[in-house]
Amino acid sequence: MTSRFFRNQLLLNSENFMTVSRRKTAAMLPYAAFAVFTLSQHASAQSKDPYPGLEAYIANAAQTWGIPGLAVAIVRNDSVIYAKGFGVLSVGSKTPVNESTLFEIGSSTKAFTATAVAMLVSDGKMQWDQRLTDFLPDFRMSDPVANASATLRDALSHRTGIARGELVWLASGIGRDEVLHRLRFLKPESLFRTQFSYQNMLFLAAGQAVGKAAGSSWDDVIRQRIFTPLGMTSSAPTYTGVRNPNITRGHGIDHDTAFIKPPFDADNIAPAGAILSNAVDMAQWLRFQLNDGKVNGKQLLSSAALRETHTSQMLVPPGSLGGGGMDSVPTSHFSTYGFGWIIEDYRGNLVWQHGGNTEGMTAAVGMLPNKKFGVVVLSSMGQASLPGLLQRYIFDLELGVPKRDLSAEARTRFVAQHRRADSVAKVQEAKQKSGAQSPIPLSAFVGTFADSLYGTVNIVMKDGQLELERGTWRGKLEFLNANNFLWYVPKSAPVPPLIIKFEVAADNTVTGLFYGLGAEATLLSRVKPRPANGQRNGVRGGR
Which residues share a beta bridge with 470? Predict the structure, then answer.
């Protein structure tokens, strides 16, 4: 076993994936393959440096943090004052990023879904406090109270109490309807409407409800009601049908070296985090939000409906949106969630913002509404702190406050954190028994295991090595101790290697395994082999 597992366990957690907050601390080290960071040479009317030295600062910070490609747009008083690309499309590429380069925006998609609901509220086809089951009759949750009462407001403000359950949909190979079907088997982590519980699948439910109310699909509503009237001509709800060659590749870090990740297939959770966009298109999105839903003099929805998305619905406890400690000097005093937006303060100013993470990209979208000012930063590195740091740095420039090198400050803390994590990881690795072997023959673990929440997991033997297959992920299983193995998920996965615990009977028969992240791990029972007559003994999920 390598120190990768121990280091990742200390530095990463499931909360970082598709997170929303500027507080993320996970970030990336620079790598030798990307020695020089260049500004895009693509000509643009908005390419003039809006603040002296800003472009040089962005380029230097991106190189320091090892971000292959970046794009920034700034809006002030209904005008796009800046839109520019930095770096290249991918490691090893010479093609520059420009203001029209597409990026995955992750959970910044959620504000689009909330705005789509607001449009249908304006049309009289939906109501904020209408139950989800009015649009999705088969929708169910395990909590009977939430099941009977959950509304669009609850889904869009993360207050249903249902646990995150990211591995239900992530790399599962199932579609949107099946994801929602499995949600009923996910246990709550808090009582209904009592606390903030970030939940991607409830945004999927809201998006599916949008499609039902509109008589089409979430994808079509986003295209026709938002992208088209806003002039977001390059943006797409998902990768489906995208043929644009001007698109970044996502990246991750392995042993301080950047590597390319495959495109993030988020179609089965699309309303929560699948949109692709670029700097110039996202600038139009900021203009629309800051202008109270008006585009070129035309009101696309009622001001009241849009303002509801910007209204605090649920208090967000400190650190609940992914990590903490990015600020050496506190600049915010409260944080709440609206509908697809975090509403908080920054240096005494109201902020609407929402970040986004996919497997290989990070976005930061934020506005100072009282100043009619907005910033979007898109990047081609997963779990990167820099987009949020740059957003706040530009906020500071606009507010005229004393300048701080936020990137350098965060970098210093980051390096110190990693050094401590590396030291602890080496100690923990040394404690593991070298060459330890399972007391039970490896062949006893081979088989199929299933439950209603996570579906089917297969354990296979390949060249004398156990491997676990689930959905689109496949990786080796390495024995740890007792009945515990370490599953090496694909390097591109947004989670560290997972501990898989097997259930073993007194006669050494393997009867099940636990699958899931942390407290969400669930027992999957062994599926009996199909009888010779062809009748099925297995069940859909075994629970």
Answer: 473
User: How many C-beta atoms lie closer than 10 Å to residue 262's C-beta?
Assistant: 12
d(CA 17, CA 205): 19
CB 485 within 8 A of CB 498: no
- Residues 354, 340 contacting (CB under 8 angstroms): yes
Higher pLDDT, 352 or 434: 352
129-172 pLDDT tens trace? 999 999 999 999 999 999 999 999 999 999 999 999 999 999 99
pTM for this structure?
0.90
Strand 465-470 to 473-481 pairing: antiparallel
445 has a pLDDT exceeding 50: yes
Residue reference for tokens 């008006």: 294
Query: Which tokens hold the place of 292?
Result: 């109270």
With 70 as the cut, is the pLDDT of residue 456 above it? yes
Q: CA-to-CA distance for 208 and 213, rounded, in angstroms? A: 9
Query: What DSSP character marks residue 219?
Result: H
Asked if residues 95 and 76 have their Cβ atoms less than 8 Å apart, the reply is no
Residue 8, phi-psi category: left (phi > 0), alpha (psi -120 to 50), beta (remainder): alpha
Q: Is 382 exposed, middle or buried (0-12, 13-18, 19+ CB in 10 A)?
A: buried
For residues 302 and 465, give the distance between their C-alpha atoms in angstroms, rounded to a whole number. Answer: 60
Phi then psi for residue 467, to 5 deg, are -135, 145
